[in-house]
Predict the structure.
Amino acid sequence: MTVAAIIPALNEEGAIGQVVAGIPRDLVDTIVVVDNGSSDRTAERARAAGAIVVAQPERGYGAALIAGVAAVPLVDVYVFMDGDASDVMDHLAAMLRMVHCGQAQLVLGVRAGAVEPGSLLWHQQLGNRLVTWMISCISRRTLRDLPSLKVIDGNTYRSLEMRERTHGWTAELISKAAVRGIAIAEVETGYRRRIGESKVSGSLRGSLLAGYRIIAAVIRVWRTEGAAR
């Protein structure tokens, strides 16, 4: 099976080289870093570490991920992760194995277990609980997290027809998968403090805007799919 890792990055020159180098090459065939309009050396350092770099000047987490998938549209499995070195890759082999053997179509790297102090701020945890509760309400399935680290079967991903171009992308992905009855598994992966300042949780305005977009994405899924259940 062919596996591609998609990594959105905006001004992550301090972390992106480490992130790319830390992905096991025996597990992942292609690493795509999507430069989301960086003004630093993110693209240069990603290339130096061995990644394919795709430019997506349109700002937005979802816009970056959609551009990354478009660069490798037919792979068997996608790994989505952040470019700030917060995701822990120790359980990637197990996550991929669950997809390969058909145990799950989507595997979420839950930020639990070995979580570094300060890596998840209180408002992030509160927002996460609210959104997972909303997804549970519309899908009648219990989920624990909306993590950045995700492994998904390629055909399953393509069937979801992702549209969200903002920080609501992960919420749309998980909400659609849950509502449609796609097999979802969760693996506790831990979590680390990011390198550099967050563009979202680093400010009240950024956090509120991201929270609005995440909740709006879940509501859109409920209106288009969940309400018909």
Summary: The chain has one domain: 3-228.
